[in-house]
Amino acid sequence: MRRLTFDGLQAQPGQVWGGVRLVPLVRDEPIESLRLHPNGFPDPTLDDGYRASCCYTPHGLVAEWTDDGAAVPALGTALQMAATTVRKSRKPPTRLERRTRVRFVPHHTAIDAFLPLSYRGPATAWSEWSTRAFNRGLPQIGDKQFPGHAVEGLADALRIFEIHPGQCGVLVYVADALAAAVVTPHPDDYRALHPTLVEDGFGELIWRYANLYREVPDFEVHLDESAIDTVGDLRAAMAAARREWAGSHLGIMAAGLLDTEYHFTSDYWMAPYTLWRFRPRFNARREDGAARAHEPHVGEAITDDDGRLAFLYTFRLSETQSRRARLLEHLADHDWNLEDTAAAMGLAVPALAARIDATGYGDLLRQDVMDRFRAMNVRFGR
Amino acid sequence: METVADLAAAEDVLLFVNAAIASTGQREFHSDVDAQRWSLEFLHEYMLVNYRDLYAATLTLSVNDRNAATIILRLLQTGRDVSPAQRALEGRLIAKALRALPTNRVYRLFTALRRERVNNRRTRAIMREWLSERPDLTFDAIKYRSAFRDAVRHAHLRVDDLPHTSGDAAGELAAVLFNWRSTGRFRTPQFETWRRAHFDRRAVFELPYTVAEGFAAKHRITRVEFLEKIAPQMTRGERLRLQRSAARVGATGVASDFTDLSRMPLTRLAAFVLALPVVVRESRRAELAGALRAAALRVVGPRAGTWGSVAAVLDDSYSSSGSSEKRRRPLVVALASHFLLEALATEYRPLWLSGDVDPLMARARGVTALGDRILDGLESRPELLIVVSDGWDNAPVGMAAAVLRVWEERIDPARSTTVAHLNPVFDAAGLQVRRLSPSTPTVGIRDAENLPELVAFARFATGRTGIAELRAHITAQVDRWLAEEAPCAA
């Protein structure tokens, strides 16, 4: 699996509010066997139609295990059978005997922890790296996370958004840059998750765009009246306009998400569903020779055995984050050999060392080597 | 042939009339309070400065109570430079409008006049005249005591000059308003009850509900006890309003005994029905539908069944849920319009946006795909197509406009179907009620009861009539309105 596909999902006309465009995704037929964990719903008494063989809980929601599980924080989306318990946790059990909740790390915190995981940390010098990470924490991502509330206009846009019948997902554009994509297996899940979108984290880029671009144009429908003589013609023209819009939307505006190649790592497998984490292949060149992914999205996806997308949650990296990810990927590809990496990136070795230093991984190089590079950089300018 | 200036003037006036009908200066689904107020105040100011005569005349065009009060306030504020004839006409319009306003609105207007320091001779005369026509000043003195007292002070009135209902109250009204603490016992029973309620718990339950509410807080009477005991004093509207909250706190006295919906106005009734949970609506279906039909027939009167074939596109998209201040208001108007049109038309076809066929179960959900439903309505070639919607056509944007344009240009150039768009929501950002398309008339609507007049008025809203024609219509309306006027003293 190298790419994401939206098979079985159709884009519907988007709704614009200020600089935010929300494009609903409607599923041809909802997926019944994978559902949001019942505690994701505000009302615990669910409809009779709720029969899931497998449940998931996205980032930042609270799930309640059916047994007296210990309260362990869970990172990222979890996939579990309907009545799973967490018995073998190595954490000491909580004192509250009846506590059966598992708190998920909220989305914006989770992203901070989640990103380094998908970044491929250093494989050599592991003990130094782990000591350093243990003592001083992971290097700062260098970029603030902005909750949806802070993104200008997003809260209002989500509030007034009118959910389509059968809607199972949304593409969030800020100033027509794709900020996030959400896909759920079932319309009810989407309805439950829609209000939580405003609490998700967004990168600095999106926040900046939201402040800079307060208006995006609405695509208005234009029908060519010269070809229309009957009601049937008019209906056909309306349907054609709608189809054309949906097709061109996924082809053009969502291209950054769908055309990029990703590394997929499968994290959980359960019944027919697989939970994937994905990150872009930063140093892969496309067929036409154009350089790497220009819209870096990372995220999680659940697919079924046919490769159909059941669940998707993405996060768009900011420029700083993607530069850093690109550097780590190059280093990992060449096994942290500085000369090879520098050659692959088309840089001089001291310049590469300066970049490594700037991203917070300078401690991994030997002190004398690093000092030599630093001195060279100072002497010759960068 | 009208000049561009004429058309623009007519458009300005219509803009204001639509806003003054639809907007109440409250939060709407798409815009907040500040935006609504700012836009509305701007339009008031603009009309007052540019078209003062028409501004006063809009009092006759079923503008809502809030805007009627604002118009009166602004007219009274700026009477100085007006010709005596115009001033006399305004005076008559204001007096008539005040009589139609709810009492609390008028007292609030008087308070606003005082706050704005508007105290010219005309204002004082108008206040005096209104107060002297009150049927029961004893009641006003208790229920609106501070506002009444301020009005009396502001208008330089002598309380003894006001006509009274009973002889006993005559000397005591001034005492209640100004120095009740040093007066001792009153001979008027209402006043005496009110006086005793200050220290006697039992007297609280003999007062009108709204007055008693304050005393209940003072005596720390629990909500349950209060509601149980005050129930006999409640008016019909209060009972209806408090039915559910009383049931929540456990006061069964209020909850159980009110089932009579037969005298509710149509729009109020529709709001009441939509506020009920779906289960209750289901179980009381026949009763509710019957009450709505009866209310619609009362509004329609002899016009029932005179409109020929009518189709209506009714908006029940999510945006018709209104705001926390105007809960479900657009949906309420749509539901009331549904029953009204059903009564008016010989052949009626409702088209809800969601595709639902059961109006009683209507709820605000889903997208506003107006284009498809408008075409569904037009396809059956009715004589009249009414669209009740806030005009945020979003699936996709502009489809309704495109459909209406193509329909008029290619399929029905003879215009055998009249289309009118009634919009219950004032769009503050656009300073107007949102239009569907440039060629379709759009008018604001607040209460569904006004729908027939508004549909007749809609012919001015196509942007093709000039100010002269509109002025003639409004003048005729003013003459008609004032002809009903009772001869008055001032």
Question: Strands, helices and their partners?
Answer:
The complex is a heterodimer of chains A (382) and B (490).
Chain A: E1 9-11, E2 15-17, E3 20-27, E4 34-36, E5 54-57, E6 62-64, E7 78-81, E8 101-103, H1 107-119, H2 126-136, E9 146-147, H3 154-160, E10 167-174, E11 177-183, H4 187-193, E12 201-202, H5 204-212, H6 231-253, H7 255-258, E13 262-270, E14 273-280, E15 297-303, E16 309-316, H8 319-333, H9 338-345, H10 349-358, H11 367-380
Parallel strand pairs in A: 4-5
Antiparallel strand pairs in A: 1-3, 2-3, 3-10, 5-7, 6-8, 9-12, 10-11, 11-16, 13-14, 14-15, 15-16
Helix pairs in contact in A: 9-10, 10-11
Chain B: H1 4-22, H2 33-50, H3 52-57, H4 65-77, H5 84-100, H6 103-115, H7 121-132, H8 137-143, H9 145-154, H10 167-178, H11 189-197, H12 201-204, H13 209-218, H14 223-230, H15 236-249, H16 252-256, H17 266-275, H18 278-283, H19 285-300, E1 309-314, H20 329-344, E2 347-352, H21 370-379, E3 384-388, H22 399-411, E4 418-423, E5 426-427, E6 432-433, E7 442-444, H23 451-457, H24 467-483
Parallel strand pairs in B: 1-2, 1-3, 3-4, 4-7
Antiparallel strand pairs in B: 5-6
Structural class of chain B: alpha/beta
Q: Can you count the helices of chain A?
A: 11
For the biggest sheet of chain A, the summary is:
9 strands, antiparallel
Model regions low in confidence, pLDDT < 50 over at least 5 residues of chain A: 65-72, 82-103
Which blocks of ≥5 consecutive residues of chain B have pLDDT under 50? none
Largest sheet of chain B: 5 strands, parallel
